[in-house]
């Protein structure tokens, strides 16, 4: 008899009430596939945009019934025929789109690129790097910010924002980060100059001029405030409110390896911090998403399996 697993599942789109826990046959690795025993999944807004039926806004389409989540870290426990480069027991992290919140997930290798978790990095922290870390990395790199320039990170207290602040600061960039006042000490610790995003953001930024680039990980108002302060739209990106002011997004292709190795190496060296604010069991996945959907979690939430 096939082994069984627990899985978070939706039969139809909805809010957290649509999330179901079910027992089902564990998937088996076929040719060209590996199976990962998932130990940690990190939550992202894209997860609930997908299970809520808003996938069009993230440029992809999904149809229930289906699983949930994206970012995983765990250990390979099956290797299918023809797979090279991975063996049973390898610790890995990567994307398992709509099949993360389950005990086992099967991934096509190399179509879905998995990175190895280096010694010194635990599964929860590795999982957090997958979407938020890569988006921050790709965004900061695509902006081409250099030492001495000033970057606005709007939504700097969030999962993407905290990584973006740190990656820019380590390049010698002066970073202005927007957050609610209760998160300003956090932003200072990360190396940013905090600004409250409420009120006239453009006027506040004018006091901190000149500004050279903007990474908007919130509602798009960071892009508008930056361009009002003379920042070229070509030096603005927005990931939370795509297209605002004509700004480009960050096309992080989750089926490529990207900078996962680099991000993990920085994390091991203590040069990239992940602030994990909540650790939930699979039973409490709906509660975890309910918290994530408030939009005011200044860090990452994890489901541990
Ligand atoms: N490739 C992509 O296109 C891509 C990839 C990843 C994420 N995203 C999108 O980027 C957005 C951010 O993702 P995330 O993972 O960082 O989300 P998150 O962790 O849930 O962000 C939460 C943070 O957003 C801040 N925030 C909420 N409203 C804000 C506002 N009006 N202005 C400034 N900050 C605000 C809050 O700061 P305070 O608590 O301080 O108020 C909170 O700390 C989401 O829409 C997500 O879907 C896109």
From TrEMBL:
<dbReference type="GO" id="GO:0016491">
    <property type="term" value="F:oxidoreductase activity"/>
</dbReference>
<dbReference type="Pfam" id="PF13602">
    <property type="entry name" value="ADH_zinc_N_2"/>
</dbReference>
<dbReference type="InterPro" id="IPR013154">
    <property type="entry name" value="ADH-like_N"/>
</dbReference>
<dbReference type="GO" id="GO:0016829">
    <property type="term" value="F:lyase activity"/>
</dbReference>
<keyword id="KW-0456">Lyase</keyword>
<dbReference type="InterPro" id="IPR052733">
    <property type="entry name" value="Chloroplast_QOR"/>
</dbReference>
<dbReference type="InterPro" id="IPR036291">
    <property type="entry name" value="NAD(P)-bd_dom_sf"/>
</dbReference>
<keyword id="KW-0560">Oxidoreductase</keyword>
<dbReference type="Pfam" id="PF08240">
    <property type="entry name" value="ADH_N"/>
</dbReference>
<dbReference type="InterPro" id="IPR020843">
    <property type="entry name" value="ER"/>
</dbReference>
<feature type="domain" description="Enoyl reductase (ER)">
    <location>
        <begin position="14"/>
        <end position="303"/>
    </location>
</feature>
<dbReference type="InterPro" id="IPR011032">
    <property type="entry name" value="GroES-like_sf"/>
</dbReference>
<protein>
    <submittedName>
        <fullName>Bifunctional protein: zinc-containing alcohol dehydrogenase quinone oxidoreductase ( NADPH:quinone reductase) Similar to arginate lyase</fullName>
        <ecNumber>1.1.1.-</ecNumber>
    </submittedName>
</protein>
